[in-house]
Structure to design on (76 residues):
């Protein structure tokens, strides 16, 4: 009737590991961007449940980051 606690925990660990693996790939690819201004002003902060979070140094870069977020998602 109920799932065992081990099954639930293992399923959550596998899902979180997949998200973490994708996060690491995104961070590594983001570092390879040749435009240093982008790398200096945007930070890949989190990736969880297929949602990418970027941190920006200013509102203008936040707008630029929201446009780039779609391009980054398409590559992964």
């Amino acid at each position: 009737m109920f799932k065992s606690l081990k099954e639930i925990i293992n399923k959550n660990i596998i899902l979180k590991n997949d998200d973490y693996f994708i996060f690491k790939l995104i961070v590594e690819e983001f570092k390879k961007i040749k435009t240093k201004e982008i790398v200096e002003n945007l930070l890949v902060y989190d990736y969880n449940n297929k949602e990418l979070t970027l941190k920006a140094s200013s509102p203008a870069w936040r707008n630029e980051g929201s446009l780039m977020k779609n391009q980054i998602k398409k590559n992964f």
